[in-house]
Amino acid sequence: MIPVIYLLAFSGGFVIMSLELLGGRILAPYFGSGIYVWGSIITIFMLSLSIGYLLGGRLSVHNPSSSRFAAIFAVAAVLLLPLTIYAQGIMEFIFLRVEDPRYGSLVTSIVLFGLPTVILGMISPYSVRLLVDNVAESGRVAGSLYFVSTLGSAIGTLMTSFYFVLWFEVNTIIILLIGCLALLAALAFTADRIFAK
Amino acid sequence: MSTRLLLLLLLFLTPHARAEADKYGVLHEERSLYTRILVHQNKDLLCLKFTLVRSDSNQSCKDLAQPKRMVFSYAQMSMAALLFNPNPDRILIVGLGGGTLPMALRELTPDAVIDTVEIDPAVIRVATDYFGYRTDAQNLIFTEDARVFGKRAKIKGQRYDLIILDAFNGDYIPEHLMTVEYLQEMRDLLTPDGTLVANTFSSSNLYHHESNSYRQVFGDFINYRRQDTGNRVILIPQAQRNSDTRTPLSEELLLDRARALEADLRPYDVPIVRIAADVAIAAGAKPDWNLRKRPLSDQYSPANLLRKR
Predict the structure, then answer these.
(1) Cα separation of A30 and B145, whole Å?
(2) Any chain A CB within 8 A of the CB of B155?
């Protein structure tokens, strides 16, 4: 089970940063690609992750299980779907109502990325809970977990900015990320069934 | 002897002497939010650069001995727009640089309203301080991203007779300003007979992708290239119309208009008659790029990664 959890934590990190980078691309047609657009995106990702850490930690207290862990991935996948369908309409709506592109991009980032990123933020603390058996090793486990998930983030950033944008359309990349999350949810769920027996 | 040496030393240290020495070097350097800005002087040539590394990174140059002279081919080539409509009422310029184009058009078309969009406040400052860029009631600057400006201008119902796309950063054209969606937004801002001019380069693989993006939005266009420069200027008269319903421009008509403009353009060193002859040839030329390369879109715009491929 342990390698599966590490794989999931790695993928969580990968998806978060891939999504964040694509955010710049998604917002550019309506709000430009100025520093404030990146400011908005990073602010909202950080804020959402921080809330996600808090909620993930809380969730891990009651009956932690790989099935619940799988549910986090499934929910994140579902919440990312609107991004591929409604992003254009949502940005149009906000663009027409918020004149200043700084606040326009901030509001858009909240609407498009807020919720899915909160859910993705829950992955790390929940993973720690699933991996820790005793207090003595908790620090080591948390360290390994941060290592793996942040490595995932680094690779997600690199792959997206160097290669994915060259190979695929933005929406195709998001659908691939959704597919990846769904697959991982299925994996965690199945693993839970197998190891529970 | 020592007094003479002292005098010489004093002379050397006076501000005048330092100004002379500065004539060959960097007059100003700053790191803005978007790029690194350099103002470099070499004899009478004052140039704006966005990076130090590449030698061809000049954005704009001014000849101090002949301030009106258009130093760069692309600026001269852009003046071909006046052949299609010598008296545009409203002009939009995307990308200020040293302000060469807005300042020249301000004088050449004194009745026109000129809107210039420039994202970088530092570029505006440098254009004003070093290159003599000035705004007035008819010549305005908007410190905004061109996508944002374009969308808002469309909502406000603004239309232009001439749009010049000339936005560059230190690298190339920003990626979101090369997509078919952006070009369509610019097309929507034109009056029915309005002209679109775009300054691009023909020296990389991006040339094919970029050309096909323009082709997807505008159909046929005049692909104005010159042997002596890597600049390629895209000229699209009556850009809002389908390319088969545009009024054909004969060589005689272009040459007639060029001769009428010749005297006005002489101080700018723009060989408009030669340009008209070039444009007449380019207007009849077949596409010289790979038509199968994918157009750039908001969904697919790895533009600056495609350059090296």
Answers:
(1) 9
(2) yes
Instruction: Tell me the pLDDT tens digit for each residue of B97-144.
Output: 899 999 999 999 999 999 999 999 999 999 999 999 999 999 999 999
Q: Is B166 labeled as catalytic in the residue annotation?
A: yes
pLDDT confidence bin for B16, thresholds 50/70/90: very low
**What are the structural domains of chain B?**
80-306 (3.40.50.150)
At A148-180, the pLDDT tens digits run 999 999 999 999 999 999 999 999 999 999 999
What are the chain A neighbours of B176 within 8 Å (beta carbons)? Answer: 25, 28-29, 32-33
The active-site residue, picked from B115, B161, B166, B278, is B166
Q: With contacts defined as CB-CB under 8 Å, which chain A residues touch B180?
A: none
Residue B67: which pLDDT band, with cuts at 50, 70 and 90?
A: confident
Q: Pairing relation of β-strands B36-42 and B45-49? A: antiparallel
Please indicate if any CB of chain A lies within 8 Å of the CB of B168.
no
* CB contact (8 A) between residue B145 and residue A101: yes
DSSP notation for A32-95: -SSHHHHHHHHHHHHHHHHHHHHHHHHHTTSS--HHHHHHHHHHHHHHHHHHHHHHHHHHHHHH
**Domain residue extents for chain A:** 2-192
pTM (two decimals): 0.88
ipTM over 0.90: no
State the greatest distance between any 2 C-alpha atoms of chain A, in Å, as a whole number: 58
Q: Which CATH class is domain A2-192?
A: mainly alpha
Which of A34, A170, A171 is the closest to B145 by Cβ?
A34
Cβ contact, residue pair A25, B301, below 8 Å: yes
